[in-house]
Amino acid sequence: MSRIRQLDAHVVNQIAAGEVIDRPASVVKELLENSVDALATRVEVDVADGGSELIRVVDDGEGVHPDDLLLSVSSHATSKIDNADDLFRVRTLGFRGEALASIASVSRFHMRTRQPDSDTGYEMEVRQGDVQQPHACGCPVGTSIEVHQLFANTPVRRKFLKTTSTEFGHITEQFTRIALANPRLHAVLRHNGKIVYELPATDALIDRLRLFYGREMAEGLIQVESESEGGRLWGYVAHPSHSKSTRKGQYLFLNGRWIQDRALQHALTEAYRGLLMTGRHPIVFLFLELAADDVDVNVHPTKNEVRFRDSQQPYRQLLSMLRTKFLSADLDGSMSMPESNANAQSSPTPERKLELQHELADWAKGELASWTSDRSPVFAPQAEQSATTLAGTPPQFAPFPGGAQPGEAGPAAHTADEAHTDLAGPHGPAGRAMQIHDCYLVVETGDGMTVIDQHALHERIMYEHLRNRVLEGAVESQKLLVPETIDLSARETSLLLEQQELLQQLGFGIEEFGGNTVLLTSYPVLLSRADLVQVVRDMAEQFDRPGQTPTRRDTLDELLHMMSCKAAIKAGQRLSNEEMESLLAQRHLIDDAHHCPHGRPTALVLSRAELDRQFGRLG
Q: Which superfamily does 9-203 belong to?
């Protein structure tokens, strides 16, 4: 039996590295936190190949004393606490004294540093745990740390790194957290020599949020603030019209430290209850300031989990603050028209307005004529044409017959005197159908009646059509004359660019534009009436599933589900008789018309016998 023995310092450091440093983003996080603790006013981060080859962090902070250089890469050596009692009143981001030693044990580590009152700088190198003696060098005030070939001496760890874009996405997320918590810090991020972020120092957090998330998001934020005996809570929360399918948009900071806390997340859910759809999560940027001895940050090596002395106090404060704000805020949705050159030019004359209207009408007529000659609408105008058209040409998400738009009672829409239509379905006896609540179709059958959810049925039809097109490699795509710019988070941007090939298979053209912006260059014709910007954002959220590594097939199927839902007619959308006929005809042309892609039933059947029994007509 093996005897117990003391592990050497190098093995101990590698064990600690497994807890603290699990990917390049962890290195960036620890080094940026050290820069903030050193009171830096400017920090520059350079990354190569997603951080696997190089991570360089340069700051203008206080630097490291020459006599402390060797200690800085030793285990449990720190300048931030002195004794055990200090663990319960931590005022800095770092305090464990493990980060630099862990990083140096699994990389080629190089540090240059100079303090403000010194004329000479010093540098030191550590090669996979082998520490070289420091020596004098010339360098500016502050500290520069380079981490080369991360995990080169632990190939098993290196093998588990993801793609370059994925790893860089994690790095940008860590950079974002530090930048949001410290808006007065001038921060720069480069990848492979290209500037990704250049964030000037600012006193207004909203300016930094605008740079990260775009003007539209920033304008939809609501400023909140609350003070109590326990502490101060302030920041911005998004209007309910802005939400995400995950909690990725929730940034909670405690004394400048990004944290995860289930109680606070639950408080957010309760505050937004009734304002968001099921399955959606609010977007918030909130900062909690508490006395250092009211919170314990020594819970987990990553320092992201905390314990509150009174866990109910921040919960109540957050919930009360948001509910009070929402009661007094205008939460009605708003819309705005795109800006034009109207500010630079004088208003057109009445004659010119009339001329423009005629030009627009002529253009629209020509477009409609060319469109109808090239495509079959989703609902055929004649019942006898429906089956032929639907069997030969898959449905398109296109304008409705007679020119009626969704929700409009156009020339072909049914009226009070025309509330039902006679149907001669290809798979059943003649019956009558009518729409109720602009949501359900009630169809008479030979042995009773069927109630159909129009959205669920059309969603299944769209899903079957789109899936077949994808399998055949024949998704119809429409190029945009002017590509659409879409602002996303850094991680969402990297995930979308990583899945360019898959998105191309679905008919989406996505290209890199710079920073957190992508270009939408083409889209599937099926989604011509959908909000394309929101569809792309939803797809990015689909890719960002923490703790999950879905297969390509699963990912593709989830995207097909989402796209078919976006393309389908909606509940509350009035249909004409011809549209109802066409939709019901399509029901018989797909394999599984009983359930939508999400598993909800598309129809409920009520037999004649059951009707007779309920009305007491039996016996």
A: Histidine kinase-like ATPase, C-terminal domain (3.30.565.10)
Q: Which CATH superfamily is domain 376-619 in?
A: MutL, C-terminal domain, regulatory subdomain (3.30.1370.100)
Torsion of CA 306, 312, 318, 322, to 10 degrees: 150
Q: What is the Cα–Cα distance from 299 to 296, expressed in whole angstroms?
A: 7
Q: Which residues of 245-263 are buried (b: 16+ CB within 10 A; e: fewer)?
A: bebbbbbbbbbbbbbebee
- Report domain extents, the chain: 9-203, 207-328, 376-619
pLDDT of 151 strictly over 70: yes
* Bridge pairing between strands 420-423 and 477-487: unpaired
Residues 6+ apart with CB under 8 A from 203: 183, 184
Give the whole-angstrom CA distance, residue 150 versus residue 498.
22
Q: Do β-strands 448-453 and 477-487 pair in parallel, antiparallel, or remain unpaired?
A: unpaired
Closest CA to 568 of 459, 428, 417, 489: 459
Model confidence pLDDT, tens digit, residues 394-403 = 333 333 333 3
The CA–CA distances, whole Å, from 433 to 297, 407, 441, 450 equal 64, 19, 6, 9
Q: How many helices (H) and strands (E) does the chain have?
A: 18, 26
DSSP assignments along 402-465, one per residue: GGPPTT---TTB--GGG-EEEE--TTS--EEEEEETTTEEEEEETTEEEEEEHHHHHHHHHHHH
Q: How far apart are CA 295 and CA 449, in angstroms?
A: 63
Mean pLDDT in the chain? 78
Structure tokens at 265: 């997340």
Contact 251, 236 (CB under 8 A): no
N-terminal to C-terminal alpha carbon distance within the chain: 86
Q: Token digits for 347? A: 């208003």
